[in-house]
Amino acid sequence: MAESQDVLLDKIKEQGDLVRKLKAAKESTEKIQEEVSKLLALKAQLGSEDSAPQKFVLKTPKGTRDYNPQQMTIRNNVLQKIIAVFKKHGAECIDTPVFELKEVLTGKYGEDSKLIYDLKDQGGEILALRYDLTVPLARYLAMSKINNLKRYHIAKVYRRDNPAMTRGRYREFYQCDFDIAGQYDPMVPDVECLKVVTEVLDALDIGKYVLKVNHRRLLDGMFEACGVPVDKFRSTCSTVDKLDKLPWEEVRTEMINEKGISPDAADRIGEYVRLNGGAELANKLLNDEKLSKSKAAVEGLEGIKLLLNYCDILGISDKILFDLSLARGLDYYTGVIYEAVLTQPIKVGNEELTVGSIAGGGRYDNLVGMFDAKNKQVPCVGVSVGVERIFSVLESKLAAGDISVRTNEIDVYVASAQKNFLEERMKICAELWNAGIKTEQSYKKNPKMLNQLQHCEENGIPLAVILGESELKRGLVKIRNITTREEQEVPRANLVEELKTRINALNVKEINGSL
Amino acid sequence: MAESQDVLLDKIKEQGDLVRKLKAAKESTEKIQEEVSKLLALKAQLGSEDSAPQKFVLKTPKGTRDYNPQQMTIRNNVLQKIIAVFKKHGAECIDTPVFELKEVLTGKYGEDSKLIYDLKDQGGEILALRYDLTVPLARYLAMSKINNLKRYHIAKVYRRDNPAMTRGRYREFYQCDFDIAGQYDPMVPDVECLKVVTEVLDALDIGKYVLKVNHRRLLDGMFEACGVPVDKFRSTCSTVDKLDKLPWEEVRTEMINEKGISPDAADRIGEYVRLNGGAELANKLLNDEKLSKSKAAVEGLEGIKLLLNYCDILGISDKILFDLSLARGLDYYTGVIYEAVLTQPIKVGNEELTVGSIAGGGRYDNLVGMFDAKNKQVPCVGVSVGVERIFSVLESKLAAGDISVRTNEIDVYVASAQKNFLEERMKICAELWNAGIKTEQSYKKNPKMLNQLQHCEENGIPLAVILGESELKRGLVKIRNITTREEQEVPRANLVEELKTRINALNVKEINGSL
């Protein structure tokens, strides 16, 4: 505890004793009231009556963080660009509660269920924080009996992981999902999701990428053809999913030692998962001796062929790679799966950041049915954009001085060089606010001119209105351009008009500048 | 469980037995694989392998709700208007985690602490969901050692209350806060908060309102002057706060029976709290025999006088009412307090909704200090807009048919009357998306013309591109205006240009329409 606090507490005790003494002595009300006032003033200094001295380390919970204004500006800019793409494709917006009945989440995430944040049982329902936005969407569709929906949902999700926060991974993080639900023709909504991913990544302009695609039915067929027992398909799939982080040898060892796959089967899988290409690969595999005998594999390959054809029509083929090593971790996918990966490290200051996967998704036709008593299916396909990694890259660029952001939008600062101009400044602020001009002023009665101009420069405010006695007497005020330092006197009566002209000119210039 | 599901499970068991039998009999790999494929197909029908039949009632947690696209459109429109006002005043945006260390929230909310949602102890830190955005702001300021900040924060907060959901009160609800932190001159930031409230309510255009103001120091002084013991100021204040819902007689009874105030003191309080007015009332009370002897009361009254003077200068006096019955529930206020109340019921269909309080706030100079080891103070003043009530009113209006909302922004629907035009439609969609035109099409291969046009009408899509074989052969496509049903043939090569012209014309018209 700080010394000043101790001293204050002593004073309060002393003063309290004094008041009690006066009351006991039945002193005059006036005298008592005077001392009570002093006691109150002391208590006000101390803070709230139940204010205890801070005894714990002040921090946000593990794996979480505050977003300061610069980070929020970056975040809002990124999300705005993404939302614009989602809206261009006709997506509607929904939101769901941050927590769900625990039962809604149970049995949806396999091994990762241990990462779910549970709420304390405080009497009532057993709740848990959402782990993603996909299961809540499925619950929403089942609950509201909606059969068709193209929606986006941008919200925070929660995982009790041990994340590498330096790489933009947190326990509380944003997901940014676009999904199409409904019974439609094969691959038509699926390819639109791929198109959306390319538009988002192009809009964000974060470098070259490849959009890997594969098909769960093909993976199933491939495992079948390689002699993996049916009950080990999902766990083998999870192991294949690690190929983007581990070399094949390690993945092979895990398959054999942990998943109980025979070395022969593992080696056969190894042959397939090194393959990638385009439609010609799909055609080749349709003639593969083993795969062609698996109904699942043929279904998957036919799906991939159709998807690649549609990619061609939409003009995104140059960004697509059919890749048999792509598996995706989650259990619930049933058809096409995809993942966008940046193919170049991103330059940040003098260093290079390797980002890797930046968006992913796939088809999940059975998830809604899990919530329906009659198992009624609503087929879905969707994509989730890894915005946290994008935020993280941009924040690094900001820290390295590669980019700068403006955290407010103020166009005009109302200043005065002289004392006793607060009320005049207020009048002008009110006038400008009422005219819709983004305006601020100092909250001090007599701020220094230097501080006021410094505030404008630090905050990128382009214009200042400067009030002075001599000008006001002549019915004039000065407008100062903060960048050029040019000042011009204009009639007080025309101020709004004059400022609007200058703001419009500035905005046009800014747009010219950034083209 | 549905019967079909049972039948399916039986079939899977049967097929599994068959596969095992074939394997045991060492049948040919081909034969075994064929049967395994069938087994896989059956399992795919069943859904995910761990899919259990739904056994619980499908719902969102008590006191929470999903927002559907219509509700989200309303919500986003309201928030956009509010954010525009906050930005006009130079506010920056921050965000904090949805949960805090439990210790951060402890001792901040008085009796209401029982409403905090705790997270389960899963090993690690003890966490709780945020109860408001004010305490997280104070924690943020103390932690980041920031002395000045004008910020807005719009996010959900959590209270285990038993809310009347029909009146727009939930356990999970949005708060929409604007606060100014920093050591400034008296009432200068405070009056800007009042100005912000008036601008927000005017922008939302939800009817006449009055902005009640009072001062915690005046309340303290008033309690003192009426003979309330110092240690009962806060609890008496909580009781006075109920005056907007209860008649004076009941409040008086609570004071006497529950808070231990003498009947005389209660009656004296009763005399004061019925007073309201403007600057003349403040002057009158400064000459009040009892109040003028209380240092606290005089401080509060001087503050109110200054505030009312500034309100005059900002041109908002006609909306302000100095009201001695305004107390505000929370403990942490230390200076001016205020609350905006709608003075007229809102017409919804044939009924009238009484909304009451719609925004409130005040000065809290000691909250940040509670988080600082050295009790360093950062004075703050702020306002919270009751957006949930506003959402609730607008949703009622929507339900009553008083307003309508469009949940998507699509300008062009690409349709075809003939079969086998999917790929042609896709090509055109890609072209329009690449040109930045908000476009959609049916995800079906051969949708019916009627269904396509119906979709446009239901979703307010203004234009359709209609593809036909005979037109395409001549290098033409049709553009249809959905409202007027006019159709026009344009060259396929000029389509983007032609659509952009029409979209711009529509937008101009829409703006004209709403002015």
Under the CATH scheme, which architecture of the largest domain in chain A would be assigned?
A: 2-Layer Sandwich
Number of domains of chain A: 4
Largest interface: A-B, 138 and 140 residues
**Outline type of chain A:** extended
Count of helical stretches of chain A: 17
* Unreliable sequence segments of chain A: 48-52, 511-515
Quaternary organization: homodimer
Q: Briefly, what CATH class of the largest domain in chain A? A: Alpha Beta
Strand content of chain A: 15-25%
Structural summary, described in words:
The first copy, chain A, has helices spanning 3-24, 29-46, 69-88, 102-105, 134-144, 188-204, 216-225, 233-240, 248-257, 263-273, 279-286, 295-314, 387-399, 422-434, 449-458, 469-473, 495-514; strands at 92-93, 99-101, 127-129, 149-158, 172-181, 209-215, 276-277, 320-323, 336-342, 346-348, 351-353, 357-363, 380-385, 412-416, 439-441, 463-467, 476-481, 487-491. With 515 residues, chain A is of the alpha+beta class. Chain A has four domains: 3-46, no CATH class; 61-206 and 385-407, BirA Bifunctional Protein, domain 2; 208-343, 2-Layer Sandwich (BirA Bifunctional Protein, domain 2), CATH 3.30.930; 412-514, Rossmann fold (3-Layer(aba) Sandwich), CATH 3.40.50.800. At the A-B interface, helix 2, helix 3, strand 1, strand 2 and helix 5 of A face helix 1, helix 2, helix 3, strand 1 and strand 2 of B. Chains A, B: Pfam families: HGTP_anticodon (PF03129), tRNA-synt_His (PF13393), WHEP-TRS (PF00458). Chains A, B: Its EC number is 6.1.1.21.
